[in-house]
């Protein structure tokens, strides 16, 4: 497997922090009733946030976070399809 360039690694790491922030925003928004659970905003946050953390975990071959983020994305996608 080809080794990733340092700039690519830095971009993936920064993206993962984006994921942490938006998933926390989505969770807090639903928990504190700023959003309904089916609102597309927290659903979109969950999909994009999990995807960025998935990339970071995949890069490191850290399979437990890969699995949980794949499942998290699938749940959010089902919710998104229910909304629309």
TrEMBL record:
It comes from the Bacteria. The keyword Nucleus does not apply. InterPro entries: CBU_0592-like. Keywords: Membrane, Transmembrane, Transmembrane helix. The chain crosses the membrane at residues 9-30, 63-81. Pfam families: CBU_0592 (PF26604). The keyword Plastid does not apply. Residues 16-83 form the CBU-0592-like domain. NCBIfam families: CBU_0592_membra. This is CBU-0592-like domain-containing protein.
């Amino acid at each position: 497997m080809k080794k990733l360039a340092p700039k690519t690694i830095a971009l993936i790491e920064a993206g993962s922090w984006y994921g942490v922030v938006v998933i926390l925003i989505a969770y807090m928004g639903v928990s504190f009733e700023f959003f309904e659970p089916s609102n597309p905003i927290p659903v979109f946050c969950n999909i994009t946030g999990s995807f960025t953390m998935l990339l970071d975990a995949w890069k490191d071959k850290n399979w437990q976070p890969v699995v949980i983020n794949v499942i998290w994305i699938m749940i959010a996608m089902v919710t998104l399809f229910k909304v629309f």
